[in-house]
């Protein structure tokens, strides 16, 4: 009889994974990333790969959800177009520079940004794994990467909230989640051994992560605009 609830849970788990690409472990991981982050950190630091879904996989799923939500407001193209249309002088400058209507410019940019967000912004911020390793050299690379993407996954959830709020208020969402990195960084103290280490390591992690997000967003913007320019001029 004791095996029946476990079997039933496994059936539900498999059904969710087949239908939506997620399972109960992934949902539990997401919940704990947001509300029991210390437990997630400690599990990965201890080498536990059974309790939680690898957070790099969770991050990719959240980015896909972010892209889907952005399409409700026209995707990155619609958000950028809405921002530009509030500044007529910017519209005129962009149309002159690119040689075409802003609707087409933003469409090309949006196509590039949809693909580049996870690759470029996520890639740059993932470099924080090196900093995690310098804080605790006993951590293996799997633990470092999972701890880093725990923070990035939490940031992406807040990024989703910012995306919806920005769309509703007609202000383009920040690419990435730089402001959230500071808020999330206080959780990182759980790997520090002293109160001084808590302040210094949390602050350093927040600062470095923000720099990576800014650089990643800047690079993504440049590539997206370059792609739009090439497409607008016969490329």
Provide an overview of this structure.
This protein has 235 residues and is an all-alpha fold. The chain has one domain. The chain contains 11 helices and no strands. Helix 4 crosses helix 5 and helix 8 packs across helix 9. It starts with a helix and ends with a helix. 35% of the residues are buried. The mean pLDDT is 76.
Please name the defining characteristics of this protein:
single chain; 235 residues; mainly alpha
Ranges with pLDDT <50 over ≥5 residues?
Answer: none
- Structural class estimated from helices and strands: mainly alpha
Strand content: under 5%
Helix and strand sequence: HHHHHHHHHHH
Report the radius of gyration as a whole number of Å: 20 Å
As a percent range, the share of helical residues equals over 70%
Principal-axes geometry comes out as elongated
N- and C-termini, Cα separation: 66 Å
Q: What does the average pLDDT come to?
A: 76
Q: What number of structural domains do the residues give? A: 1
The overall strand count is 0
Helix run count = 11
Largest sheet: none
Task: Briefly summarize what is shown.
The protein has 235 residues and is an all-alpha fold. The protein has helices spanning 3-20, 24-35, 37-45, 55-71, 75-85, 88-98, 102-126, 128-135, 141-168, 178-185, 195-232.
How would you summarize the topology of this molecule?
Elements: H1 3-20, H2 24-35, H3 37-45, H4 55-71, H5 75-85, H6 88-98, H7 102-126, H8 128-135, H9 141-168, H10 178-185, H11 195-232
Helix pairs in contact: 2-3, 3-9, 4-5, 4-9, 5-7, 7-11, 8-9, 8-11, 9-10, 10-11
């Amino acid at each position: 009889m004791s095996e029946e609830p476990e079997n039933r849970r496994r059936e539900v788990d498999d059904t969710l994974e087949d239908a939506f690409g997620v399972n109960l472990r992934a949902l539990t991981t997401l919940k704990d990333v947001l509300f029991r982050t210390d437990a997630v950190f400690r599990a990965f630091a201890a080498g536990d790969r059974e309790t939680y879904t690898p957070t790099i996989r969770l991050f990719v799923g959240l980015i896909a959800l972010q892209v889907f939500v952005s399409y409700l407001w026209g995707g990155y193209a619609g958000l950028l177009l809405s921002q530009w249309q509030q500044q007529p002088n910017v519209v005129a400058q962009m149309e002159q520079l690119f040689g075409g209507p802003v609707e087409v410019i933003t469409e090309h940019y949006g196509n590039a940004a949809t693909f580049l967000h996870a690759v470029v912004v996520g890639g740059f911020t993932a470099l924080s794994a090196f900093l995690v390793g310098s804080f605790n050299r006993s951590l293996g690379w799997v633990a470092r990467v999972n701890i880093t993407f725990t923070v990035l996954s939490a940031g992406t959830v807040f990024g989703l909230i910012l995306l919806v709020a920005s769309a509703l208020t007609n202000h383009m969402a920040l690419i990435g989640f730089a402001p959230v990195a500071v808020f999330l960084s206080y959780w990182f103290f759980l790997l520090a051994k002293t109160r001084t280490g808590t302040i210094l390591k949390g602050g350093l992690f927040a600062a470095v992560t923000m720099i990576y997000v800014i650089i990643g967003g800047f690079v993504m913007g440049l590539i997206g605009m370059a792609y739009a320019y090439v497409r607008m001029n016969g490329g």
